[in-house]
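Retro notes
What went well: the complex prediction finally ran end to end.
Inputs used:
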Amino acid sequence: MLEGLLLRFVLGGLTIAMSGWLGKRLGGLIGGIFAAFPAVYLAALVGVVAGHAGVFTSAEEAAMAVSRGAFAGMLANVLTAVVAARWVERRGWRQGLAWALLVWVGAALLVFQIFLA
Amino acid sequence: MIVHRNRQLTPARNGWVDFVVRFALGGTAVAATYLAVQFLPWPAVGGILAAFPAVLASAVSLSGWRDGDHQAALVAQGAVAGMVGGVAAVGITWVALEQGASLGWALFGGLTGWAATSWAALQARQYWGRRQARRSQTGAVAGASEASRPGNEAKVEAGAGEVGWRVGNEAEVQGEAVAQSRAEVGTQGRVEADTKVQSGVGVRDWVEAETNVMPSTMMGTDAIARPDASPGVPGRG
């Protein structure tokens, strides 16, 4: 259990850090696109699918459950980026980012509850 | 050029700090998703964590820490296009799985959709930046003209693209430029303005504008007033 969690932490962390590094390294338009690579989603998907036994009947079913929630989270992400852009400028990056992340939690749960639950 | 007031305290500009912050945030999000999907009574709610904006959070905080709030806000602004690509990636994968596609094909479709949508969103953003550049150019000239009136100093806020338009750079990434115009007494219908780029690019430029002020009306007046006596110039991005 703990080993599995640690393994997912390390593999997930490496994936996200590497994709950020690659985005910078590539630069330009390709780098700009790659900087927004949905690395957390893919790593989390692999992490859940790899350990689906006992909870889901198939890898596809596990992936579907993760994707349904992640879709709500991704829609909320667009709002979060817009909110962060405005509030970081007005209130400073610490407060602005904290509020934007709170908005993310609220918006994701709301979208999920209304459309996907 | 903006000099950060806490330059001594900012982290080094090598890639290691970025790497460690991303690693920690990303690793936490992935591990938390696994835990939530395994142990929450509603696994799909755990899936929300798989969309945690770890990259946005790390990029904004690192940028805010090093370069200040304005630059951090620009980073967040730039992330909007990327987030649209993320919606496409997850949406396509999810719908494909619902339609009975295998995991491999669903992911292939999702990633193809992500690349296409991100590219389209960036193109749209660049188009928007160029459009703003043209508009802000007009706004800056109008503001400089306004500044030449007696007792006025106009603060011209030019939109995203203006500086990039001048130096041929990627304007839409840099955000807004602030031009402060100082009217000179007795000028022959010509106003010069220093343009300071807040994003730290450090471009100096000037705006030339035709003014309608008769030299006689400006005699003996102090043309430079408070910076906040802004006439409300259009063109902010």
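What we learned: Chain A has a mean pLDDT of 87.
What to try next: split runs per interface for comparison.
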